[in-house]
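Bug #77: duplicate submission created two jobs. Keeping one. Sequence:
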Amino acid sequence: MAADATQEAFIKIWQNLEGFRNESAISTWIYRISVNTCLLHLRKPSSKKETRLTELYERATENYNTQTDQQLSKMYGCIQQLDETGKMIILMVLEGVGYEEVAEIAGITEDTLRVRIHRIKKTLSNCVQHGGI
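Kept job's structure:
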């Protein structure tokens, strides 16, 4: 699945390069195309996707023994329960992408982004403590 989405993203970037208006950094524009392409792939129903997610989850959790690692596992499970925009925002924040760039990619103001991040963190905290969103 990842290879398909990657190839499709590169094709879209190449096909739309003439349409880039220099209103933002090209990296932001490319990131946005990539995110949208991946989100489209995630929306497509696929048994392969379910199998792949299960395999990734099993591999990621098979070596976890400590309470901290279990909490991380719960946290990533809770992140998967967020809506697509919420997932995109929190994953970019966790990757260290700056608020200005995240806001631009999400198409919202930085103030709105800060409110969304606060709500996402609260939702994730409740999810980890009580076992679901």
